Amino acid sequence: MLSQFFILTSRGDTIAFRDYRGDVVKGTAEIFFRKIKSWRGSLPPPIFNVEGIHFIYIRRSNLYFVCTTKFNISPTFAIELLNRIAGLCKDYCGVLNEEAIRLNFVLIYELLDEVLDFGYPQMTSTESLKSCVQNEPVVVTSDTQQRVALPSQHPKTLPSTAANKSVAVGQAKAGDKKELFVDLLERMTVLIGANGSVLRADIDGSVQMKSFLTGNPEIRLGLNEDINLGSAGGVGVSLDDCNFHEGVRMDEFEKDRTLAIVPPDGEFTVMRYRLAGDFRHKLPFQLLVFIEDTDSRILEVILKLRCEIPVDQHSTNIVVRLPVPKLTASVSHEVGSS
């Protein structure tokens, strides 16, 4: 059972707060933010204790979703609940950012009152909450929609911001499109040795959907028929591990690698998978590192980043981070022209 729930900005401003039990001291938001800022190194762990109060939090879009309790509850339960609340805010507001939460604070409080009762979770399904939510959302443009978009090589493909719409009841009008958005998200983790060779490479991926369909139609998403699970081997793609949404019909997937599901309202993950292997010839970038000791107190590091992406494709938001020792006095850098 939870005692409090609140949402903080990266500056420490409280934009939503609910005290469900009244058994925790006042000012927990300030205590939490001071602890976050005073923590040495990176952010503190997602769960920590301050004077008998357990703080559990997640960070999404520069917002802290925090809950407090004095009871010994399951950590995974609390983190999953926070993730679902963040997902509900995104489903009903369209986007998840500070402006959307501030402009839709009445809607957010209405959701919090339905999701938690005296600190006990009641329902976290976007579809089930539709009948309980009466406030209309205020449409907010996300930060990514305001940026200058790169020229698209596929004019029939919608931008990623096209799905930033609310699923709130009452938005559907005559003539509105019945849409279903499918996103394939992959995260590649690569360990590169000092000589530039790939020591390890892993891919964690997911297939996500966001449904704006009326009724309950069944959706069938066909995958590559050469997908192999586990150590089955074969000539196709071998997935080391995968799991599915509870609504996926496994008999269809085992038969012809088809994901058959009746999509619920809002955004949800249809499938998660993981695979490891030799991707050295398929990496989007190649990183070469050269280290030179120019002086007893000066270390020169040269990073060369080579793009392996085809010329007809684009990459954005590329960030290169170089950790330095804590005793480093100063750092200077130069960026090459090519």
Layout of strands and helices, then pairs:
Elements: E1 4-9, E2 14-19, H1 28-38, E3 47-50, E4 53-60, E5 63-69, H2 75-93, H3 98-103, H4 105-115, E6 116-117, E7 120-121, H5 126-129, E8 179-192, E9 198-212, E10 219-222, E11 228-229, E12 238-239, E13 241-244, H6 250-256, E14 258-261, E15 266-276, E16 285-292, E17 300-307
Parallel strand pairs: 11-12
Antiparallel strand pairs: 1-2, 1-5, 3-4, 4-5, 6-7, 8-9, 9-15, 10-14, 13-15, 16-17
Dominant shape = globular
Termini gap: 56 Å
Number of strands: 17
Largest sheet: 5 strands, antiparallel
Radius of gyration: 24 Å
How are the strands of the biggest sheet laid out side by side? 2-1-5-4-3
Helix content: 10-25%
Q: What would the average pLDDT be, to the nearest integer?
A: 84
User: Structural class, please?
Assistant: alpha+beta
Low-confidence stretches: 144-150
Report the portion of residues in β strands.
25-35%
Number of helices: 6
Order of helices and strands: EEHEEEHHHEEHEEEEEEHEEEE
